[in-house]
Structures are given as structure tokens and as C-alpha cells.
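TICKET: design request
STATUS: open
ATTACHED STRUCTURE:
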């Protein structure tokens, strides 16, 4: 952990973050304090030089973050959908990510222990204490692949294969084509039988019949699912949940039970830990996701990048 002194920041504000049904509480009860200029003033009052960019509908947060100067840290006022792409840009970089959690679930911020109250979150960034936390990479491995390719997808919450990924895929389909199609896709996923998976974990091959495998960096993902509530995003290891011995409906019920950060122990979930995992379907391909975004089908490899992201924490 280090202390950052006399730094400039690029403040990226997503003005439409948050507000999904049953989501977490707002960063402040006073909406005027969450306006972009007010957030910038809050950072300036703590001694930071601030350049502000308010995202429009057409803006890509990652592209905006790439425009930060070589000595500018980047503060994101938004939810996971804004924080994640910016974090991907800053992975392996000397600049530091700050988060003002303004999303519906704030999985990344909550998993890192970042306050979800405005003044405390501003104070944390103002103090300038930096921690290095893990990133995950996901890619479709070819035989003989030892290192991640340049186009590997970074993730900071969780990735998954099987029913977990199919659920996120149904949501993506609903947003593009309508919720009738999403319901149809979800119904098809629930009707699939469990398939045997080949899980290669740090060189050891495991065979499991399971509807889903979820690879976690931190404790929360999706709708605040507290799947592995004690997962540490800075320990250099994945926490991997294998839903062995559970039906598709059992898996759905469990995800609903642990939504919004609720903890629940399920003895049928096999918990593993490791640095690199490859998942294959033994008889058919399976959908995969990283941070809720589809990344195609198996086989897929996930590898942790220890301490790859600097965060005000």
C-alpha cells in the first residue's frame, strides 16, 4: 500500500448510473451532491486537480479513460458497467482507479471495501492510499497456449460457464431483441440437462457433472450475488464455485437467495481455489461470460493477474 500525493485526476461521470429495481441505496440522499460539478468540487476540496468528463450516450468509458494523461489517475462516478471498462484500461498501468459507487449494485466497489457513502468515498480518494488488487483474464485457449493473448477479456467481478452464463446471455438478448426472446432463451437454458465438464485447475483435470461453474475474483457479481462471500480480490487466487449435484432450478434458486449481497451456505457447491482454470464441455459446447458479458462458448481459459490494478482503497 502506498500514498499518492499531488495528483491530477480525470473524473468520468455516468449521469444515468443506478436506479434498477431492488438495487442498492444511493451514494447520497441529496441528489444535488451527485451532480457532476458537485462531485468535482468534492474532489477539489480534498486537494486534487480535477478534469471532468460527463459520459454521453455515445461515449465508450474505456476510450475516455484512454484519453487520460500520463500523470492523471482516473475516478469513475458510476456503476459496474462503467467501472469495469475503465479498470480494464488501467490494468497493468501506473495510474490509479478511484470509484464513487453510483450504480445499481456496485459489485466491484463493495467487493473492494470502498465506502458506498459519498463523503467517505471522497475522503478515501482524497487520502490517496493505493492498493494493488487482482484482475482476471478470459480467452479461448488453443492447444499449446501458455500466455494470454492480447485480446483476452479482463474481468473484475466473476466469469462463468453454463447456466450462469446463459442467464446473463438471456438478459443481453432481452436488451437487444425484447424480453419475450429473453424469456424463451432462459426457458431453453433451464430445460438443458446437466452436462459433464472438464475443469483443468492449475494443471489438474477434474471431471464434474454440473449445470454451472463460476470463477470469482471478489464476493459479488451480477445482481449483487454473494456467491463466495469471503472471496478476497487481492489474494492472487480465484474462488471457483462448481454447482455439482444441483439441478438447473436448484442453481437458479441459489442465485436468487444470494442476490443483493445476502449470504447463504449451500453444501452441494464445491469451492475450489486456483490461479488458472480451463473449462470444457465433455460432449457439447457451453456458453461463457466475463462480468456478465458474453464471451462465446467453451473451451475457455481464465487466469488471475495478481496485483494488476491500482485502486484507491
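STATUS: resolved
RESOLUTION: sequence designed for all positions
ATTACHED SEQUENCE:
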Amino acid at each position: 500500500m502506498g500514498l499518492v500525493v499531488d495528483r491530477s485526476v480525470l473524473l468520468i461521470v455516468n449521469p444515468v448510473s443506478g436506479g434498477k429495481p431492488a438495487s442498492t441505496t444511493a451514494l447520497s440522499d441529496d441528489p444535488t451532491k451527485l451532480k457532476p460539478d458537485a462531485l468535482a468540487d468534492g474532489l477539489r476540496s480534498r486537494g486534487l486537480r480535477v478534469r471532468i468528463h460527463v459520459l454521453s450516450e455515445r461515449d465508450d468509458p474505456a476510450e475516455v479513460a484512454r484519453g487520460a494523461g500520463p500523470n492523471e489517475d482516473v475516478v469513475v462516478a458510476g456503476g459496474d458497467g462503467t467501472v469495469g471498462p475503465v479498470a480494464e484500461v488501467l490494468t497493468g498501468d501506473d495510474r490509479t482507479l478511484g470509484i464513487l459507487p453510483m450504480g445499481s449494485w456496485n459489485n466491484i466497489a463493495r467487493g473492494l471495501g470502498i465506502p458506498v457513502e459519498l463523503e467517505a468515498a471522497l475522503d478515501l480518494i482524497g487520502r490517496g492510499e493505493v492498493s494493488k488488487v487482482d484482475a482476471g483474464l478470459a480467452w479461448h485457449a488453443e492447444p499449446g497456449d501458455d500466455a494470454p493473448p492480447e485480446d483476452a477479456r479482463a474481468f473484475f467481478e466473476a466469469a462463468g460457464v453454463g447456466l450462469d452464463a446463459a442467464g446473463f446471455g438471456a438478459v443481453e438478448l432481452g436488451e437487444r431483441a425484447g424480453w419475450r426472446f429473453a424469456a424463451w432463451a432462459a426457458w431453453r437454458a433451464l430445460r438443458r440437462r446437466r452436462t459433464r465438464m472438464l475443469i483443468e485447475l492449475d494443471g489438474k483435470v477434474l471431471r464434474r457433472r454440473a449445470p454451472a461453474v463460476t470463477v470469482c475474483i471478489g464476493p459479488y457479481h451480477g445482481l449483487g450475488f454473494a456467491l463466495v462471500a469471503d472471496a478476497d480480490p487481492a489474494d492472487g487466487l480465484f474462488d471457483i464455485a462448481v454447482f455439482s449435484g444441483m439441478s438447473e432450478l436448484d442453481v437458479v434458486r441459489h442465485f436468487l437467495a444470494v442476490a443483493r449481497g445476502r449470504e447463504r451456505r449451500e453444501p452441494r457447491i464445491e469451492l475450489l481455489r486456483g490461479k488458472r482454470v480451463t473449462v470444457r464441455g465433455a460432449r457439447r459446447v457451453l456458453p461463457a461470460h466475463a462480468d456478465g458479458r458474453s464471451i462465446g462458448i467453451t473451451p475457455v481459459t481464465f487466469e488471475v493477474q495478481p496485483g494488476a490494478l491500482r485502486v484507491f482503497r
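CLOSING REMARK: The chain has eight helices and 19 strands. The CA atoms of residues 94 and 295 lie 28 Å apart.
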